[in-house]
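Our platform keeps sequence and structure together, in a single record for each protein. Such a record has a labelled line for the sequence and another for the backbone structure tokens. Nothing more is needed to write down the fold, since each code stands for a local backbone conformation. For reference, a complete record is included directly beneath this paragraph:
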Amino acid sequence: MSFFDEGDEPRPAGPSAGERARRMFSPGATSATTADQQTLLVRRSVAGGLLLVVFILLIVGIKGCVDSNKRSSLRHYNSNVAKLARRSDAQGRALFAALGGGGGGKLDQAVSSARDDAKSVLDKARKLDVPSEMKMAQRYLLDTLTLRSQALDKIAPKIGDALSHNRSTASSAIASITGQMQLFLASDVIYSVDAAQLIKRALDKSGVHGLTVPQSHYLAAPLVWLNAQTVADKLGSAGANTPTPKRGKPAPGTHGHSLDSISIGSQQLTSSGNRVPVSANPAVKVKITNGGSNDETAVLVKVTISGQGFSPITAQKLVAKTKAGQSLTVTIPLPQAPPVGRSGKIKAEVAGVPGEKNLANNSQTFPVTFTR
């Protein structure tokens, strides 16, 4: 046999198909396969857990940034409101210092300056960047500053008339100015009761602590500036209760008035006690009669309400002319509503005129209790 005729070296026989099947389904093969599957599941679980942790950290980080930005926004708003409140209060102090200076020559200028500054403060407040948590507080802040601006709009053009030597003109202007003081008082109440409380609530709810919530007081002495007589005295106005101007010699014949009755609303007061409901815009009606034989000019009628626990409320009106033998009812608006639940007395009087000899019937006083 030749070399090349020798057969190939036999190769080791591989496992038969049956053998492979037996290995596959043998206990050892099953154990290895299960171990691989468990390892895969563990790896997947670990990877999923890591992804969840990363997701949670991401959410926490985002929320932390959002909360930090929100708190920063609330602090910024509180700071801006404080600046506006300080500016408005300083404006009020300057205004009332000028008004209480006795009507100096620069009073017109001081009031006009306060009016312009109030508009500027209101405009700045409207442009504030307002966090959603401060929307209601912002609304009451704007109400506060709007009332102050509106009051100054009405007061500014009345200053010249209030300083007029014409008593009728001055008295009317003083009444108007005193009425606007109510708006200043209302602005203080709205700010302290609503705006400041809502700002504090929003800060506390958002976890912003350690800040001072700004306060604001425009009308520093309401018991002074809500009284028409005091306003007139402060301004040095002819609308104050000064004696009637001197006239010439009285005309021949009789002179004088009688005070016939006092009413509030539709209720005429009597000596037996009176329970009077208080309205939003109270006024006292005083009926007088010119009992003389001459017409009279510049007749002053005055009303005073007094009692324990509250300052006297005074108002007056100058009647240009009364006709001999005729009666008329003089309506005198009060500068403020009397306190509900308090008792006191109402006195009305008509000032004597030149030539009047009998003043015994020039006034009446009645007890009264004010109710809702």
About this structure: The chain has eight helices and nine strands.
